[in-house]
Design brief:
The chain contains 17 helices and 17 strands. By secondary structure, the chain is α/β, with parallel strands linked by helices. Helix 2 crosses helix 3 and helix 2 packs parallel to helix 16.
Amino acid sequence: MTDAECADGSSTINREHMSARDVVHNIWTGLHLSEAALASVKLPGAEGPALPSSFKIGTLAQASIALSALAAAQVHARRNQIPFPQVTVPLEHAVIEYKSERLYTIEGQPTPVRGTIGGLHKTSDGYVRIHDSFPNHVQGTLKLLRLPLDANRHQVSERTAKWAAIDLENCATVEGKTAVYALRSYEQWEQLPQSRAISNFPITIKQVSQSSPDDALRIMKGGNSKCLQGLRVVEMSRVIAAPLCGKTLAAHGAEVIWVTSPNLPDLPVLDREFGRGKKTVQLDIHNDEDHKKLLDLLRECDVFIQGFRPGSLASYGLSQEELIKINPNIIVANMSAFGPEGPWSGRRGFDSMVQTCSGMNVSEAERAGQGEAARPTPCQALDHSGGYMLAVGVMAALYHRTIKGGSWKVDVSLAGMMKYLRSLGQYPGSTGFEAQDFKRPEDVPERYFESGDTAFGTMKSIKHSASIEGVQVGWDRAPKPLGSDSPAWG
């Protein structure tokens, strides 16, 4: 990456000229990977708006998925000592996959609409957006607003109207342990210290300990039908971005064990989509026996993906420093809302919240010209971009580990993806909103679907949009109820 991109983030890099191919080049070379591989990338589809938005979501979608496939192909080429295979990601398929959690069906039925009190609410001086995917967040917000647990959206709006937006945000995110964020413009966001704490480059990888290179590990044995066959991944995460990282690694053959807590609520709509390709185990890390089972998995894994707030797992002995003691070559991949630096690093946050507080929603509404106060993007663009970029970072760290050895740390944040997407520029005026959307399964061409039996019934879902010449890409395990598998490899 350039010196400017390594800077503290106090200014935004202008990448308005970049195509999807340019983005692939920018990220790939920024991770110090071989430029020779870039000739193997094929990106069919015309430049221009690919979803109804002023933001260049199609550019980032095609590039991020291509990067993840190219990184997998790099592992395949290295361990088999062969030239880079061709990687192909069609634009239309990529943007449809960015909406995968909204487009699958089970027994012919589409996914139900989630949420009861969430979305935009007026305050005394502006607006806030409330996150309501988790029952505990709903309960916490209602408690903060002094409302009963069966309160409706109208009652919530009556209470938020009595608050100043920033005051409600601070009480909710700092004291209330929920997710409520004030609607800001770009200018208001840029006045915050947190905006300057976010790196201009979306993936940070760092070697954190020394050991000899591990070329002889099972991951580098040749002759496999999938690029990452043999890679062992433990994933502790919820809500799209980090689970998508694990799902992407699984599509390329990694053995992914998704560990969730029996103490946290299920999210069936999301869990079914992002559980594809994974084993699913439930462990209570407060329980000594379950904690030991988790450490046993981590002792033998290559990668640990976690999607909790920075530092929040340290009290359970799951900091990278502690994990290195039992697994000197572990790669730890962290997904967070605002990154590991800055005053908001410990805050909870989600795609919609970051879009709200960073100016994206305001800018999108202004470009659309429909008189809205805020307009979300037509997909969870930050979540999906972040998930693929975290997978890219994992595979880049894996590549560097084969050369330098040691344990590696990978960091990606939703706010970092926001900053990168914004750096690509927006289409002029109201351009972009005329693009086709894919709101319902019936809007999607049949060729992008695959069907299979699951524990929930026949599931029709979006195929992975990347293909790699000479190897299989896709998910071998159907989604199943959380906790269906035993905590063991193989």
